[in-house]
Amino acid sequence: MTVPREIRLNAFDMACIGHIQQGLWMHPRDRSVDYLSLDHWMDLARLLERGLFDGLFLADVLGVYDVHGGSQDAAIRHGVQIPLLDPMLLVPVMAAVTKHLGFGVTVNLAWEPPALLARRFSTLDHLTRGRIGWNIVTGYLDSAARAMGLDRQMAHDDRYDMADEFMGVVYRLWEESWAADAVKRDRALGVYADPARVSRIRHDGAQYRLDAPHLVEPSPQRTPVLYQAGASDRGRAFAALHAECVFINGGPKAHVAGLVADLRKRAAPRPIQAFMGATVILGRTAAEARDKLEEYRRHASVEAALVHASASLGIDLAKYDMDDELPSASEAIRSNVEALRAAAPRATKRALIDRMVLGSRQPPILGSVEEVADALIGWADDADIDGFNLSRTVVPDCLEDVVTLLVPALQERGRYKRGYRAGTYREKLFGAGPRLAAPHPAAAVAR
Question: Which label site among 2, 14, 149, 218 has the fewest CB atoms less than 10 Å from its CB?
Answer without folding.
Answer: 2
